[in-house]
Each structure stands twice: as structure tokens, then as C-alpha cells.
Known about the structure:
Low-confidence stretches: 1-25
CATH superfamily: Vaccinia Virus protein VP39
CATH topology: Rossmann fold
Shape: globular
Strand order of the largest sheet: 3-2-1-4-5-7-6
Amino acid sequence: MVIPREKIVVIVVLKSKKYINKIKLNNFMMPNIFEKLELPEKNSSISKSQGEFIYSFLKDKNIKNTLEIGFCFGCSTAYIINATKSKHIVIDPYQKEIWKNIGLKNIVKLGYKKFLRFENDFSYNILPKLFQEGKRIDFAFIDGSHLFDYIMIDFFYIDLLLNKNGYVLFDDIWMDSTKSFESWIKTNRNDYKLIKKDDNLLLFQKINYDERKWDHFIKF
């Protein structure tokens, strides 16, 4: 069968548009966020590439229910909210005292205030309340205190809030406390699967529910 030339042109154009749209979808038209933020101490914030990873990951997985421990200048919060356009819970007791409310100001400046639920308290106070509220999440970013026992407490409650197949992301994997926690979760929690690890970020997926016996413990 001979296809008229004009139909061939139409078909090629349509396929080209679909291809372009696919490229845009895969690249998610990365938002220009990092340059718009006030970042007095860039070492205290996630990097632009880390923010873009978080954004792309959440867009790719179509995740909406999110929570974050640690706010600082609001960089990761901005990428998370831009990706989900949904209510995002952030917990940080030091936003005013240490960070001079710069994180809150950045979120307001970007027009994201309506998506933010900010808890000005310690995570060990807020997370149990969220559990009592029946809150469920599909993604958590743990970047608060890096003391090992604090990381453990944060993860304990995050695990209770996290839906099956949800994700938990840890920052500052170069620190010994975070490395030790990585070792613990790999040896003691087979209901979690390692998804990504680089110099600074560690991502696990909850692939099942915790079915350990009461006396389970493996040295790590």
C-alpha cells in the first residue's frame, strides 16, 4: 500500500512530538530552584545535584505523601514540594534559633507556603503524634541530628509511618554514625532494600513489613 506523502509528514510530526514529550517527561523539565534560594552556608545545604535527584525521583515514582526531618535553608523542601505539589511535613526545632527562619522565608518566596506543614519541634516529639494521627507516607528524608541513636529513633517512627514500597532517604552517608546505621539496616532489616548509594545519599525501599522475632539481632 502506498501512503500519501502528506500522511507520512503528519505521522512523522506526531511521532516527533511524542518523542519530544517523552524526553521532557524523562527530564521532568528540571525547575530552576537552587539559584533562587538564599543559602548563606552552602555546606549546610544539600547540593543542587542532590536536590535535582530528589525531584526527579519523586516525579518518576509519582510520590505525593512526604515527610522530612531537618529543614535548614529549605533547599530539599523546595525540590520535594515542587515535585509533588502536595502537603509536605517538615520537622526542625532549630529553624528560628539557628537558621534565622531562612528556610521558611525561602519557601514563602517560592510560593510554596500552602504546601508546607512545618513542625517547630524535635522529631522524637512530632513523629509519635503523627503515628497517633494515623498519618501514612511514601517518602521520608532523614537529615536531622546525625547522632546514631537519634537516627535510630527517627527511622523507628518513620518505619511505622511508611507504606509498603515506600522509600526512606538518608543524608551525609560519609559520617560514621550514618555508616553504622546503614550496616545495621542491611544486616537486621531484610524488609528494606538498598536502592541507591553515593558519597552523600543513601536510599532504601520498604519492600515488606517487619516480621522479626522478638529476640532477633545480628551483629553489625
